[in-house]
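for the record, two folds in this file. i put them one after another cuz i was lazy. first one right below, seq on top, structure tokens after. the second one comes after a little note so u can tell where it starts
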Amino acid sequence: MILGTELSGTTVFFNGVAAPILYTSARQVTAITPYSITGGTVQVAVAYLRQATPVFTIPLAPTAPGLFTLNQTGAGQLAGINAIDGEPNTPANPVRIGEYISPYTTGEGQTIPAGVYGRLGGPSATTPVLPLSVTLGGLPATVQYAGSSPGQVAGLMQSTCKFPPGCRREDMCLYCRR
């Protein structure tokens, strides 16, 4: 299954390539940058009911990792799973030192095999071409897995990281700070 490139009358184009749309409202549009887009900048066009905004140019990087948060603002409680019990990482259920956490991220860049933008994850996993490093509580974490999340849309990456020794107790429930 492939996500559509039009949602509620909204379309987004990156260098003229229609992008899959996850969410749209009067104030925000969330789209997936197509894997085929390369270069140092990209021209973005947004249209609603075929009325286009002026094209704007934004920087483009091979990767631009970002963490998902529960409140969808990029700050606050991390959207992640404690691997030991499969439950969300919360103040009531913090990860423990030496255990694994699986945060949901995006911006992994091109994958092996090559990503198909908008495609829902299939039976074979994709992994990022470029290496991933993770710090938790300011300390390097061991990355056990980094790649697609089964059944989820291409562009959503899940990693499994071992929480390193030496972290403070307050780091065990992961919050994103701006």
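(here's the note) second protein begins now
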Amino acid sequence: MAKAVTEKTLSRRTQIVSVATRLFHEKGYNATSMRNLAEQLGIEAASLYNHISGKDALLQQICFDMATHYNAHMEEVETASCTAIERVEKLVRFHIGMMLTHFEEVYVTNRDWKHLKEPLLANFLQQRKAYEKRFSRLVEQAVLAGEIQAVHPHAAVLTILSAVRGIEFWQRNPRNISAEQLEEDMVKILLKGLRK
């Protein structure tokens, strides 16, 4: 008979996922053990299995929660009533915002997805490729509308995503620029370099 899912169980699971995310970020997925996680939570390692089946399940939840979040935002942007370049800007700001407000989750997803087990790994990679194609289509629409220079859409997307991932360096030493200034300057640099 399946256990009833209570609010307390969900709260504990959320706490476990949060601590696991921090540990995966700090130590890496491979170097983090269920024992490390239990110590951080102040419980016995065996007790963790009442809430989660193992480390693989934690990584799966982190990665697929992020994928769901990104895909939901992409749908909002694709259906927004605005110009193509404004859609691209919305996505750029979203990616910057995720690096600023959900850094550990994004970091773990970007670095540790390769540890997902099949068929989850193939599913995650398929979602990632599909997302990049959707982003590229938005850039292509901006090119066709004459709002940005004639660049290869995929090259533009890769450049944008790589630049946004560079926020990792700011996360290590944010004293020299505020999050707000960082976002505004990155949007100017990334989009004005594309504008006609």
